[in-house]
Design brief:
Strand content: 5-15%
Radius of gyration: 20 Å
Amino acid sequence: MRERASDAARRTRPAGRSRPPQGGAAAGPPQTREFPDDDARWRAVLRRDRRADAAFCYSVVTTGTYSRPSCGSRHARRANTVFFPDPQAAERAGFRPCRRCRPDQALYDPHTAAVVRSCRLMEGPGPAPSLSELADATGFSRFHFHRLFTALTGVTPKAYAAACRADRLRREIPRTETITEAIYEAGFNSSGNFYALAQNLLGMTPSTFKNHGRGERIGYALAECELGLLLVGTTSAGICSIQFGPDAQTLVERLRSRFAESGLTAADPGFGRRLAHALRGAAPLAAGGGIPCDIRTRALGEWLRITLNASRAGSLCPEG
């Protein structure tokens, strides 16, 4: 457990180098900036600083539990303590929540709750809700909601809705008999609207996607980010896959399984440099902050897709 926890902590610990995308979110919550490294986090644990509860959690390898920084339990030795950006990361490393402070139960914040609620609405079936509908559902004005959503996720509501629709499309194409059926199951209003967007969302034509990438050449690159290890697959048409996972072998095997009929190879160094450049500008996505891990990974994946596709055309400015 000690070795696994230490390895997991090194993989998931925020690098502290990320910046928000230009013209987008603020530079992360004050809590994140106040606890930038393990020494600062350990001092927060010693003084049971409640302000740190939204910034990170800590685990004790000898007990196998993780806690909030403000937990009233007796402090463990520093050598037995590792830090994680959020409860999900601690649980992936094999730790269970402390029964005293219940770190798996999110701190209630009305802004965070509004963003999470709007994300769940966009993840539902059917056409995506409009900005006005999302604002009404969360009790904010359109302008305030748009600014709040972008600050906490790093992407606009429109971009997040596109990511949800693309996820549904990737699920529906393999299991429906025709592309037309997949179009409507994924929430597109018309086939004309669909074909205008599909290749940009999938990185290939829908029929090629349905045929496991037959005839495509897919390059991939791996990189570390605040949310762990990620793999990005690319074709001549754009980004076809963004995955997060525990190790490189698992991620490559997933890509190979999904596109079994394609030619799969490591991407050229130029693409790796573009990916590294994009990650240096990626929004920190609140470094936890009560936003569930699935929302954060989807938002970061969509931000990377937009940025990397834009950089192919000579621009590093994400659409918004």
